[in-house]
């Protein structure tokens, strides 16, 4: 399946001037929520990601950061037949709430919707380590990191896209006066 075409068909591949959760600017934004609203597509995406994970990689738990990682973490956990939970921000810091916990020594995959700089996923990984969990891998629907090494463990993604990003002070879209849109869920300072 050509997943980029699916994103475009569902109106989930946006073009314009966007403020990413990383703080970077981009002419493109992938609104995974518009894909994940379809349970059949969510399930298929998770199965395709799961099929890329080596069978000998032991995973006990999948953890996604709220908000974007919740659905895909759940679907990936279901595909892997393991437990799935999410971390959420409380006073600006990732926390496990709602009775969720990580047992010492549990093998954890951190799952995100989109990875650009990996900021949220790295915050979740740090949280997992505080509980004594062992982060063994990362996963996402869309890897838009441009191949930059972000994580100290493997990253498994549905698709990899090399989309332009800019530091705010160097953004040509800002210089052209194109209005900036922040479609993500994280409140930036």
TrEMBL record:
Q: Which reaction does it catalyse?
A: orotidine 5'-phosphate + diphosphate = orotate + 5-phospho-alpha-D-ribose 1-diphosphate
Enzyme class name = transferase
Q: Which cofactor does it need?
A: Mg(2+)
- Which intervals of the chain form a coiled coil? none
**Pathway linked to the protein:** Pyrimidine metabolism; UMP biosynthesis via de novo pathway; UMP from orotate: step 1/2
Q: Which family does it belong to?
A: Belongs to the purine/pyrimidine phosphoribosyltransferase family. PyrE subfamily.
Matching entries from HAMAP family are given as:
PyrE
The record describes the protein's role as: Catalyzes the transfer of a ribosyl phosphate group from 5-phosphoribose 1-diphosphate to orotate, leading to the formation of orotidine monophosphate (OMP).
Quaternary state and interactors: Homodimer.
Q: What is this protein called?
A: Orotate phosphoribosyltransferase
